Amino acid sequence: MALTDITGSEVIQAMEEFERLGRERFLRTYQFGRARRYLLYHEGKFYDSKAIVGAAHGYLPGRRHLTAKDFSGGESHAVGLLRRLGFTVVDDSAPSRTQQPPLARQAPQDQLLARLARLKVNRASGRPALYQPIALLWATGRARRGERRLLSWDETEQALRDLLERHGTRGERPRPDYPVSALYHAGLWVLHDHSGPVPKAHGDAALRRWFAENQPLGGVSESVYDLLRRSGEARVAIIDALLCAYFDGLDYIPLLTDVGLYDEAVADDADADPADDGAQDTGIPHAVVVAAQYERLCRIVEHRESEIRGRRTTRASANPIRSGSARRAVLLRSEGRCENPRCTGQPADVTASGAPILEVDHVMDLAQGGRDHPSHMVALCPNCHAIKTRGRTREDLRATLLDVARERHARWSNSESP
Predict the structure, then answer these.
(1) Which UniProt keywords apply (predicted)?
(2) What is the DSSP letter of 375?
(3) Domain ranges for the chain
């Protein structure tokens, strides 16, 4: 076993597998725990550095992957290797994170995803407890509907207790004080109108008593609420991240339905413009931002597709998280114009609210073998949509549109600018 044989290529392959499987499944597959100190940072995402190196070793010809007991993850071993290969590794225990790219340079969505990836959750049962993800999905649903961000403790306690009783499938007790305290200390929740420090999410009677005596007003932080309220892309990215990390093997559909997040419009922005990226001040060219959004949405679609292949259930096959993400990706890719190359309509016209007059459709119906994926979907003006659906030349047009969808998807999925 020689870590020095590992190159950047094997590390990239390991990170790609991490993305395909999701963090929890990846760590279980390679028998690693969550990183306690060092995180590999690459393209706006964090990875468990030692686990990545262990998996990367298995991509060397004729080698097996390494387990946690086979090598050290410290600076002189796994961390040192990654840094020598040119990767950024963050020391999460350091009071000053000078190695980490400043959060101000990251998109708000990436900041939130990074914080979610580093949540500390109870694992006494061997699987991650669902307290915090249930609370976050509930808050996401409220933000999407534009409901009040801050609630009294009585309101929060009642709502979360009901959700934990119905959906806490890993032995979670109906104790809303646990997730609220944990999310507060993670910087994702705020609490007002209380005296003294907020206790950490440990113990029993003392924590319960503090919330009962203080009755704090609370909810997710204002920046998190505004992001989840405004951005459909951020909303589905956060939902997908939570599902991948915590709900592997569980039926999450009743929970998402209860909190109002299980419909295709969940990927839509609060405003009318699907291409509003909310990143005007980052200094990144708009085309690059939108291409990155397109790739992220496609990854969400593919995560939900892989779930279907594993479950083969009727309910999962109609997953609106996937279909909503695919629809939004196609609208982004279209740049507000009909994707039919023969369109003779008025592609520059918009609705009274400024949105493009476009309808997203599958080139081939799902019942006829079509795929709920941007590579098999197009954005069409109403006239072209009507021709594709019932026009005399519809079969010829469908063949053309399938070629267009595949070509545009391939171009937008690459690193080159669209």
Answers:
(1) Endonuclease, Hydrolase, Nuclease
(2) G
(3) 3-101, 103-262, 285-290+303-413
